[in-house]
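Quick note —
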Amino acid sequence: MTTPEKNPQDENRENIDPEAEHPELEQIIESSEVETLEGSISEDIQPISQQKESQPAQIFLHKMMVNIENGEKLGNASDLLFDRANLKIAAVTVSTGGLLQRGSQAILVEQIQVWGKDFILVQGKGGSLQDFAPGSENWLSLTNNLKGKQVISSDGIRLGQIEDVSIDASGKIVDFRLSQALVKAPLYESMRIPAAVTHALGKDALIIDREEIPETQVGNEIEG
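Predicted structure written out below.
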């Protein structure tokens, strides 16, 4: 049986780069890569209002707040204030001035247009917390009141301490993140307590409904 001889033209076709022969393929590939890259970038910089999952509240501290109407800097976010009645952000405090003349104003959450990755865009100006926001005496500061707060079950068991809170797209608390958990798994493993089981949130402690927590989460303190 004889082997058919190869046609020199067939060998040339095998060595031809398909992209060189069809330059439109290269354009299609490049445009596809650009679209993929742009898609990943745009997804990464979505503001909080477009995020599907909750985020830690502390990521918004120290971000610059800018007036969306005229592009003027209002200051840097120094703290988040939560209304303990509805477990939701009520306002953001803004540090103003320099080293010699430091001040603080409040921006109500209704004024915030975009919780961005790098900036918080605001409509309007801030004002004195006492004059600008009646009822603010009942708000809790993330840095001064919530962080480090004791977490206690309604039957008197110490569960741990708050490190941060997770908030959803509307600024509502989804769960409390613990710096330490003093009970066995699964609470100890997750280091989080859902806000839905809150019995009371005060200036000195967070009380969790004992009846709302599965039996396996509370009852045995970790030794050591």
